[in-house]
Every structure is written in C-alpha cells, then in structure tokens.
C-alpha cells in the first residue's frame, strides 16, 4: 500500500500517499485530507517557519534603515 505515516506539513493530518517524484528524484506525497502535495525530505531550508521568520526580520531591519534602496525587484 502507498500510505505513509507522516504528517502533512500544511494541515498536520497523519495519512499521506505517494504522489510521484520531483525532477531531483525526491519522493512527493499528497495529503488525503487537504489534497496538498509536499516533499518528504527537503534539502532547501527556506520552507521552514524559522527560516521564513528570519528572512522577514532581516527585510524589516533593512527597510527600517533604508538599506534596500540599492535592490530592485525588476530585472
């Protein structure tokens, strides 16, 4: 059976099924409850909430000290 007892990173539901592989050959899973897909083990750390919080804090610090004036969002 394709069910795996790990928790969905979106809704914390405990049953997920295999949903293919990524281009980097990592197993993708789909939550049976919310139907969202995720990768079992990420090698990129920006998806973690603590990393996201740190990025937001740095942006606030840069914005408050006007250090972002050299950066452009448009290429």
What does the model show?
The chain has 75 residues and is an alpha+beta fold. It is built from one helix and four strands, in the order E-E-E-E-H. A four-stranded antiparallel β-sheet has the order 1-2-3-4, with no helix packed on it. Strand 2 and strand 3 form a beta hairpin.
Helix content: 10-25%
Biggest sheet overview: 4 strands, antiparallel
Task: Identify the strand order in the major beta sheet.
Answer: 1-2-3-4
Name the quaternary structure.
Answer: single chain
Radius of gyration: 18 Å
Mean pLDDT score = 76
The total count of strands amounts to 4
Name the beta content range. Answer: 15-25%
Spell the H/E element sequence: EEEEH
Quote the distance from N terminus to C terminus. 47 Å
Count up the helices.
1
Q: Name the overall outline.
A: elongated
Summarize, please.
This protein is of the alpha+beta class and 75 residues long. It has one helix and four strands, in the order ββββα.
How would you summarize the topology of this molecule?
Elements: E1 3-4, E2 16-21, E3 27-31, E4 37-39, H1 49-64
For this entry, give a set of tags.
single chain; 75 residues; alpha+beta; 21% helix
């Amino acid at each position: 059976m394709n069910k795996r007892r790990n928790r969905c990173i979106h809704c914390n539901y405990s049953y997920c099924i295999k949903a293919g592989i990524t281009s980097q050959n990592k197993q993708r899973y789909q939550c049976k409850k919310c139907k969202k897909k995720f990768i079992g083990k990420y090698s990129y750390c920006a998806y973690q909430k603590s990393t996201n919080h740190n990025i937001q804090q740095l942006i606030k610090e840069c914005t408050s000290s006007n250090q972002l004036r050299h950066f452009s969002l448009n290429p």
